[in-house]
Design a protein that fits this description.
Order of helices and strands: EEHHEEEHEHEHE
Number of helices: 5
CATH architecture: 3-Layer(aba) Sandwich
CATH class: Alpha Beta
Number of domains: 1
Strand order of the largest sheet: 1-2-3-4-5-6-8-7
Radius of gyration: 15 Å
CATH superfamily: Gcn5-related N-acetyltransferase (GNAT)
CATH topology: Aminopeptidase
Shape: globular
Length: about 160
């Protein structure tokens, strides 16, 4: 993926493909959200294995946001979308989460994905505002259905990418 600029009057950040050198920065963003239950816990090894699926928002040399796109035939899961707590609602960096979502959608479209889906416990309203619609476990790819964690009671949402 090409770097996507996030310029405004007071800041300059970029959304780009993550690499192995970005793992600690990703972990620093997602660990606090894992502790609150907003995100599913992921081991460092799991992030290392999945690093090619991650996009990051970077300002100067600091990672300030991330998300991952996991393909399942003609559907893809948007997972682990998070913004560093110091940059949420920061006026210098408006809409970092939305920009990560847009970059993830573009990446998925370029891979021939027709539908993007998310599982969320706390951000349903945000995703609805971004064009997602409520879906059910029956709408998930078979592999994802098998792994669905009923205890988390995640809401399933989807968005066509056409």
């Amino acid at each position: 993926m090409n770097e996507v600029s996030c310029k405004n009057l007071n800041s300059d950040c970029a959304i780009q493909q993550a690499n192995q050198g970005d793992i600690e920065g990703i972990l620093s963003i997602i660990r606090p959200l894992e502790k609150t239950g907003a995100l599913v816990k992921r081991s460092k090894k799991r992030i290392e294995e999945d690093i090619d699926a991650f996009l990051i928002a970077k300002w100067k040399k600091q990672i300030i946001g991330c998300c991952a796109i996991f393909g399942h035939a003609d559907k893809a899961e948007l997972a682990c979308i998070a913004v560093h707590e110091e940059f949420r609602r920061e006026k210098r960096f408006p809409n970092i989460g939305g920009r990560l979502l847009s970059a993830g959608e573009e990446l998925a479209r370029n891979q021939g994905i027709k539908t993007l889906f998310v599982l969320t416990t706390q951000a349903r309203d945000w995703f609805i505002k971004k064009g997602f619609m409520d879906a059910s476990i029956e709408d998930l790819p078979a592999q994802k259905k098998e792994l669905y964690n009923w205890q988390r009671q995640s809401k399933i949402l989807s968005k066509p990418l056409s």
